[in-house]
Amino acid sequence: DSCEGRCEEGFDAGRKCQCDTLCVYYQSCCSDYSTVCKAKVTRGDVFALPEDDYLDYNLPVDLPTDEAPVADPTEVPTPPVQVDTTPESKPNPEETLPEVPKPTPDGSEEPEELCSGKPFDAFTDLKNGSVYAFRGKYFYELDKTSVRPGYPKLISDVWGIEGPIDAAFTRINCQGKTYLFKGTQYWRFDDGALDPGYPRDISEGFEGIPDNVDAAFALPAHSYHGNERVYFFKDKYYWSYDFAQQPTQADCEKSSPSTVFKHYAFMNRDSWEDVFQLLFGSRMPGANGPWYISRDWRGVPSRLDAAMAGRIYVASHQPRRRKSRRQRKRYNHHRSLNLGFWSWLQNDPDSAGIERDGLSGSTCEMLQSVYFFVGDKYYRVNLRSKRVDLVRPRYPRSIAQYWLDCPQPTEESA
Q1: What topology is assigned to 1-38 in CATH?
Q2: What is the structure's pLDDT at 72?
Q3: Model confidence, pTM
Q4: Sequence ranges of the chain with CATH classification 2.110.10.10
Q5: Class for domain 51-56+112-316+364-404, per CATH?
Q6: pLDDT, tens digit (0-9, with 9 covering 90-100), for 142-196
Q7: What is the maximum span of the chain, computed from C-alpha positions, in angstroms?
Q8: Per-position DSSP letters for 268-332, written without gaps between them
Q9: Shortest CA distance to 286 belongs to which of 247, 246, 239?
């Protein structure tokens, strides 16, 4: 079969090959897909850098350590038994997160103040790309630089759970279901609607993962034949959990689209198979660990409040003569290289004015970051190296300043 005239039709179970945007991930594309069906690029797919304005992995940075290295790994709790059962996949009803008026705390409670500096309990990005931050009884929706209007809202009014919660993550697949954890139980939501049969015990759906976790974040599978993974953190230990099942391509057609997964699938379409295998390589389904946070996540404190995976992006590096640090114009240099690479990657004739010869002799690297939140600070970690990113200004950074757009404290208030 050919993709001629089929690029906009979506998935068709009656055809032996597919021409929809997810066929590369599911390895079901027609042979002429890459030439006939040109990928549509959204604004979120073409950012050149993460939240930093400049990036240089050659900067010498001394990573802080908050405790002495652990010498005896036998102190770790008994490793859990691996399992191959996961919560079943079900189609998603196309419902939206309900809107409620801004809550007014009663006189006996301290009002929720956005810029109070109190630790957050959980962060997660929903399937529509929105980022949600949970703290105490309330939660916020964040845009690129600050909090969206109408927040905070009570967790109990919108999610049906009395706050605070312990952790949250959203699976990075086409269905994009969101999981909230509290105590011994977890809840699973589909576009803001609670799935039937929930809450469930953590020991039932995630056997081998402890109760009362501190933080969690999810990663995609490198392909349909791989396993999605979730990392859980508690005290000074962490665990990984590999899901045994993924939604089929037919399941995806019954679900509203996941913006986060579409971004990942778009990146995957350009044959980064080896890189994705390295970043998201699979193990046996079930729980693995525990391991020490301080040993494997360099520069990150051993006890976390929250965690969240960032978006995948591409960095390109061009060999250049050694210059002094003052002579390096990191922002403009890396920005031109990245934009040039994206223009080449997309083969987009409409990208007028973008430098196209910046990649001569350069190398490109797929990067995935994870954000760890501790107190009123956060760290960004490169998933491949599992160390705090070497950028300036250095980490940790202020959550209030970089995520919530709170005013910087004056010298008097500090």
Answers
A1: Factor Xa Inhibitor (4.10.410)
A2: 37
A3: 0.72
A4: 51-56+112-316+364-404
A5: mainly beta
A6: 887 788 899 999 999 999 999 899 999 999 998 999 999 999 999 999 988 999 9
A7: 71
A8: HTT--HHHHHHHH---SSEEEEEEEHHHHSBTS-SS-SEEEEEEEEEEEE-------GGG--HHH
A9: 239
